[in-house]
Amino acid sequence: MAFARVFAFVLLVLTAPVLARADAAAPEAFIHALADRALGLVTDKAADMEAKRARFDELLSDTFDMEGIGRFLLGRYWRLATPEEREAYLKAFKESIVYTYTARFDEYAGQKLVVDGSREDGQFTLVGSRIVDPNGNADVKVEWRLIRQGDDYRVVDVVIEGVSMSVTQRQEYASVIQSNGGEVKALIKALNERMARLKSSGS
Fold first, then answer.
1. What average pLDDT does this structure show over 150-157?
2. CA distance between the termini of the chain
3. Which of 18-22, 48-52, 79-83, 163-167 has the highest mean predicted lDDT (pLDDT)?
4. Does the structure show a pLDDT above 80 at 3?
5. Which of 18, 76, 77, 152 has the least CB density, counted as fewest CB within 10 Å?
């Protein structure tokens, strides 16, 4: 599956209202609450884009293990990066997600997320779900990989039709770094340039 198509499905996952069982377990309820918050954000006509970006940033902090994901995406280059590069990378990584996804909020078209159940897999909890399209297109299978942090959960990966978003993004980041002499600062520059383009486009 092409990365652009996977990206589009993740956007739908984050904004689709959830159809969950009344007896949903805690991990399933966590996904339910995450999607409800995202949908409320996307459909809020009173909020301007700046406010939506701030709320989406908060949503990511509350429900995703952003530092853990960021470290995984950088792979072996995390160990090679200086403390300053790590800090700059994590900042650019999160901001690029915020700007990229909020710029595409208007792509939501009434899809729903059905939560099918959850299971334990070592240190992770996997929540199975599927996107149901109102136009009758085939369901899209989505699996959420969660870890426990204190009394709550955090998302560490989203797997769509067998394609891991974290692995896909890690490969893209590695390609950028490898094409620039193994320099992490090249990835930071690329992320910041992507944000600059989105800002200049008025997104």
1. 91
2. 26
3. 79-83
4. no
5. 76
3-195, CATH topology level:
Nuclear Transport Factor 2; Chain: A, (3.10.450)
- Per DSSP, which regions of the chain are E strands? 18-19, 112-121, 124-132, 140-149, 152-160, 163-164
Query: Given this model, what pLDDT does residue 1 score?
Result: 36
Give the span between the Cα atoms of 60 and 67, in whole angstroms.
Answer: 11
Q: Which amino acid is at 94?
A: K
**Residue in the block written with tokens 């390609």:** 175
Amino acid identity, position 117: G
Q: CB atoms < 10 A from the CB of 58, how many?
A: 13
Alpha-carbon torsion (31, 36, 39, 41), positive or negative: negative
Helical axes 184-200 vs 83-102, angle rounded to 10°: 30
109 φ, ψ (degrees, to nearest 5) = -135, 40
pTM for the predicted model, two decimal places: 0.85
For residue 95, which of 170, 165, 197, 9 has the smallest C-alpha distance?
197
Q: In what order do the strands lie in the sheet with 18-19?
A: 18-19, 112-121, 124-132, 140-149, 152-160, 163-164
Q: How many CB atoms lie within 10 A of CB 118?
A: 22
C-alpha distances (whole Å) from 125 to each of 50, 118, 145, 155 are 34, 7, 6, 9
Q: What is the DSSP letter of 46?
A: T
